TrEMBL record:
PANTHER family registered for this protein in UniProt: FAM187, IG-LIKE V-TYPE DOMAIN-CONTAINING PROTEIN FAM187A
Lineage: Eukaryota, Metazoa, Chordata, Craniata, Vertebrata
Cell location: Membrane
Gene that specifies this protein: LOC109691301
Location of the Ig-like domain: 267-345
Name of the protein this chain belongs to: Ig-like V-type domain-containing protein FAM187A
Amino acid sequence: MSLAHTTVLLWVWSTLQAFEIVEKENIFQKTPCPAFLMFDNAAYLADMSFELPCHCKPEEVLTVVWYYQKHLGSSHTKVLTDFDGRLLTEASQVRAGSDMLVRFSIHMFSLLVFRAQPEDSGLYFCGTRKGDYFYAYDVDIQSSEGMVAIFKDKGQEPFADEYHGSLRVFTTFWEWTPCDRCGVRGEQWRIGLCYLQSPDLSPRYRKTLPDVVSCGSQAVPRKLRVMVKGHMPELLVQSCLVPCKKNQIQKGMLAIYNFVSKVGSRPWMPQVPIQFHQQRLGHGLIISCPGARPEHAVAWDKDHQRLYRTQYLKGVNRSMRVFIDHGNQLHIRFTQLSDRGIYYCWRQGVRIAGFRLGVTSRGRYPASLSDPETRSAVQLTLIGYLLIIVVFVTIHLCRCCCYLFRFCPNFSP
């Protein structure tokens, strides 16, 4: 290619890039900020990650600062920024239960919150360092504890709407997830969150539908929150069957193994990456699917056994030792020797990883307070000592009272 052609191509590329930047700036020019600050209502399930875009800002503002308040007008306000307009956080390194100040990131004026918890519900403001607000959100994080599972294959139906005078409480379902397995019978589900409709909502909160907001919204008066407290999120599950897409790379690897192996003794080749883990007998284990989020379609298999949510979803049976929680994690309580095997993980209909679990009854296992069994043993020990102290003190108090009132029985021989 000649120098002239190269120059022309570079000029065209720079022009297109400049045009793209101008277009991004025009978005804020065409979207004026409201004169009166309103709150956009948004609802999510616990442990999900969400993004709040700053839809408007003055042209002279180059970086934004996000603020958080639990309630409108609260004296305690969290500043979500590193004062450079952005904070890079890896979602895979975020742990549930961590403070929100280590679970957020700012990218292109948008706020990203990872693994949100019900405590993160509240008001989020997009503004400047001086405290000028441009845009605001009313975020409702609904807890997955007590979530009701509904299995369509068993003929179950979602709960009917509730009416309390002019108040209507109902469930709004998201779209169906993709089938969590391919080539075999799988499952798909949709999450339903609690919403209500009432004419008594605060007019300062913007609604998608007239007089409709999520049940935990700040727009709901306190007297109405008591009526919707018992309406839990729902999980609708049904069976599905989709074909698998052919993997040409996997066929090539099989051809190489067939060529280098002896006739009739082809070595075993895992179809997905396998991770090995050794677990001590009697201790609990939690396995997470790599790269999966609560809203993803995730499935688990043990060797050739399908662990369907119809039987293994958390809450189906209170005495379950092996179950899948609402965050798509596989729990094994009090590991047994029969738990040995390979646990395969499906994500969005593709099997992506395997975990070979070995169970041993020997070896040193360092005690740690992060271990649930260790915490339970410590709690039971402390409760036992406390009961002994209470009984000891009670007996001596009774003896003292007896001596004071001169009617204490004589226990001496």
